[in-house]
Amino acid sequence: MTPWNTVHTLAIGGLAAATTASAASLGSYNVDPESISVSGLSSGGFMAAQLGIAYSDTFKTGFGVFAGGPYDCARNQYYTMCMYNMNPSITTPIANMQNWSGAEIDDVANLKDRRVYMQVGTSDTTVGPNVMAQLKAQLAEFATDSNTVYITTDGAAHTFPTDFDGAGNSPCGVASSPFVSNCGYDGAGEVLKWMYGELEARNDGAASGEVLEFEQTGSYGADGMGSSGYIYIPAVCTDGLTACRLHVALHGCQQSYGQIQAKFIENTGYNKWADTNNIIILYPQATTDNTMHPVWNGGQLPNPNACWDWVGWYGADADQKGGVQMAAIVSQVIQITSGSA
User: Is the pLDDT confidence value at 84 over 70?
Assistant: First the structure.
């Protein structure tokens, strides 16, 4: 196992605070390569679907989408058709998945064996149930019904749902920063249980492990990504003796560390479940970008809300293998899992 060069431990969930001048280099851990999964909210949900589909050979367990939308949605119609509870077309996106299979994206036949989780709030008007229903319809062409679950949460707005109160959270029925809310539904727990089956009860007390900041540079970074990412390592996963699992958790727009600090990392509940179930949680970070960029389907847009790229800001191949943000996240995953026994 490669050690962290310079530890930068965040004071999260009762963890001891010990900061240094620079972030750590990303380490490697004993992670079962068959155990990798990803989930995300909003733009992170779109990105989770992109990763789960384009890199299905990497994300062999599956993917979860909280209030995201169809794969390749914005390439074929203006991006606002994929938001605001519209009814985006999935005809061309489905055809693209079929045509790109085994080349621009991994073989879509993989999706029959992947676990797929979807969740949306009934009061979500930012993305909305209609958009999510189109994702469900799209994936029905490729995934297996028994491996797929679709959840609607009554009264929830565009927010990450939990069943506990976190400091600074927004009301469940209001789409406002930090977009994490007690909605009486444990989103993190449910997506992890869908990925991995029955889990040990979560740890609602002091965490056993650490949240570490790492350098999100070189092959681990890309346009539209911050200089640092974060990773939660349960104590049992630190010595290399236990084969752990890896889940990538992607924040949504306006949820990067630079915007809401540790609220997505701490308040969503992923770490609580990870702590008792030998799961490492990777939190890559997007960043604000006020530069105008050409996007798919015409026009130019900045990215001031630190959204993940689901509209083509950072290349025509943003949702294909080699798209710079997806390639950076996959590079992080490869490094983390390189210590597998």
Answer: yes
C-alpha 139/C-alpha 48 separation (Å) is 13
Does a structural domain hold residue 61?
yes
Structure tokens at 269: 């509940």
User: Nearest CA to 178 among 105, 282, 257, 240?
Assistant: 257
Please confirm, yes or no, whether 275 is among the known catalytic residues: no
Our answer to whether residue 158 is catalytic in this structure is yes
Task: Name beta bridge partners: 233.
Answer: 210
Beta carbons of 158 and 124 less than 8 angstroms apart: yes
Q: Please identify which of the residues 39, 43, 158, 319 carries the catalytic annotation.
A: 158
Residue 118 lies in a domain: yes
CA pair distance 230, 252, nearest whole angstrom? 15
- Collapsing DSSP to helix, strand or coil, 276 comes out as helix
**pTM of model > 0.90:** yes
CA end-to-end distance (rounded Å), the chain = 10
Q: 72, 124, 309, 319: which is the annotated catalytic residue?
A: 124
> For this structure, is 154 an active site residue?
no
Q: What's the domain range around 52?
A: 33-315+329-337
Catalytic residue among 42, 123, 181, 228: 42
pLDDT at 22: 61
Pick the closest to residue 323 from 332, 334, 312, 333 (CA basis). 312
Ranking 4-8, 113-117, 197-201 by mean pLDDT, the lowest is: 4-8
Q: Cα 131–135–137 angle (5° rounding)?
A: 110
